[in-house]
Amino acid sequence: MDREQEEIQFLGVFGILKKSGNLILHWRKIFTQIFFFLIIPLSYLYSSHLVINVSLFTKIMLNVYMFYAEPQGSKHHREISKRFQSELVISMLFEITYLVFFTVLSLVSTAAVVYTIACIYIAKYISFKNVMKVVPKVWKRLIINFLLKFIFLFSYPIAGIVVLILGVVLFASKWILLTIFIVVFVVVYLYAFVYIALIWYLADVVSVLEDSYGMQALKKSQILMKGKMKIVLCVSLVLSLCFFGVEQLFKVLVVCRDQQLWIRICIKILWLILRSISLLFGLVAQTIVYFVCKSYHHENINKSLLAYHLGGYQWKYVPLKSKDVQLETYEP
């Protein structure tokens, strides 16, 4: 990465995306290893989950239809009831297993990419073996971030529904006030959700490179995004649109249509590659955004201190202090 601190803070959306692509191409050996050993398994796990989920859901809905169609108390009715219960249990166990493995691979991939880019910044020797040694050292920090994110995604919609119901009950007899309330509620709800999602966008990078995790990482991420909110929003929006396009391609061509077997296999392989590329590119861009925000706030990265802390990853974990994170130039 060869931009001076004064220049990197002025990178826009396309500059960040271009820098991310150049970084992957220039250091293609290590990123190719991350791609094949971490990113592709993650994408394959996701696609397999989607296909199996569709199959399980179809069976469950068919049993529900047959359950109500058969006379209650009949032998066939009892058999369908038992089959329906067993399929529900299988579906729940499958979802829990998928969530565990998906979370593990996601956190490992995030830690690997962030650590790799940090090593590139300081010209530190980097290999896939060294990257994998780092993952257990930052596991606890990323798990705490994930748990907070899970709690938020579970509780935020519930809180929104409660507020919406209270508002509807309060203004039920006043249509004008009810309409205004619903409009304001939707705007505030979506704005708050997007704002918190953007804060979380940098939290994992902060947790890997600094001494903050959990709520501290969220606060640090919020501070870093000040003045760069539009850039962070646009980058995340572009990447989200790429993910959405790839997902829709997969759902339409593989899940929702009956194709010949060889066509389905080719389409799935193509989708797997496209999604994996998008995921790797997104993780790299996420880390670049972090460094751009650091540079914008003149929180430079001191190369020697960062090298010391990254070296400590392989022996005893020594997290970076925020004041130590200073960006310097490295030309490979």
Rg from alpha-carbon coordinates: 24 Å
- What form results from the Cα inertia axes? globular
Name the helix and strand elements from N-terminus to C-terminus, one letter apiece: HHHHHHHHHH
Distance between the termini: 8 Å
SS-derived structural category: mainly alpha
Fraction of residues in H or I helices? over 70%
Largest sheet: none
Number of E-state strands: 0
Mean pLDDT: 81
- What share of the residues does DSSP label as strand, in percent? under 5%
Output the number of helix runs.
10
Low-pLDDT residue intervals, each spanning 5 or more residues: 315-320, 322-332
Give a structural overview.
The longest helix has 47 residues. With 332 residues, the protein is an all-alpha fold. 81% of the residues lie in helices and 0% in strands. It starts with a helix and ends in a 19-residue tail after the last helix. The chain contains ten helices and no strands. Helix 2 packs across helix 8, helix 2 crosses helix 9 and helix 4 packs across helix 6. The C terminus is likely disordered.
What is the gist of this entry?
The protein has 332 residues and is mainly α. It has 10 helices and no strands. The model is unreliable at 315-320 and 322-332 (pLDDT under 50).
Write the layout of secondary structure elements.
Elements: H1 5-8, H2 13-26, H3 28-69, H4 75-121, H5 128-170, H6 175-209, H7 215-225, H8 229-255, H9 261-296, H10 303-313
Helix pairs in contact: 2-8, 2-9, 3-4, 3-9, 4-5, 4-6, 4-9, 4-10, 5-6, 6-7, 6-9, 8-9
